[in-house]
Write a structure and sequence with these properties.
about 210 residues; NA-bd_OB-fold; two-stranded antiparallel ribbon; DNA-binding; alpha+beta; ssDNA-bd; 4 helices; Single-stranded DNA-binding protein; Primosome_PriB/ssb; 2 domains; 10 strands
Length: about 210
Amino acid sequence: MATTPSIIMRGFVGTDPKLFAVHSRTGQSSGCSFRLGASRSYWDAASQQWKARPSTWLPVHCYGVLAQNVAGSIRKGDSVLVSGYLETDEWGEGDDKHSLLVLKAQSMGHDLLFGTSTYRRLRKTQNATTKSYLSIDQLTVPVSTTDSKAQSGVNITQDTCPEDAAELLDEYTTSQEINADGGSDENTANEEKNSVDADFLVGAEAM
């Protein structure tokens, strides 16, 4: 049985990652693409200096949850390590047929030889139609009480979590009956909040 060998490519991100929609028989998903550059240095004895060879550029594609996380974590200029496989994408017909060698990423991360990075684990949840990934750090952060949703004590921001994450929290916060003056039953609200936080944290520890 033929297999596609995996490779690990080390380089720097040449363009900001861009999200795009992917349509398939199982529904719509997310894709992400950017250009990855890699170059090697060599010692030039004549000039007694290190010199860089011409850069090799390769388009990188990834899909699903990885695509969403890459778009939220990777920026132009970052040094990264990309693990995946090479595949030739083809389009067009006849004389107008084109092909492009693409690195299909299966995992990715910052290259810590050139900088530091902060890791935030995402908790996977399942609802009726879609999978959402929630940041554990965001679930228990104290928030402002200037609006009714904030009084749940739970906050998820759009810039740190995938778009479906906020909808899950909306289902919880809107299920609470909060009076216009922000009153409701404070003790009951606190008990519900603590119960929800505990459920999220127990799920996180089990991962």
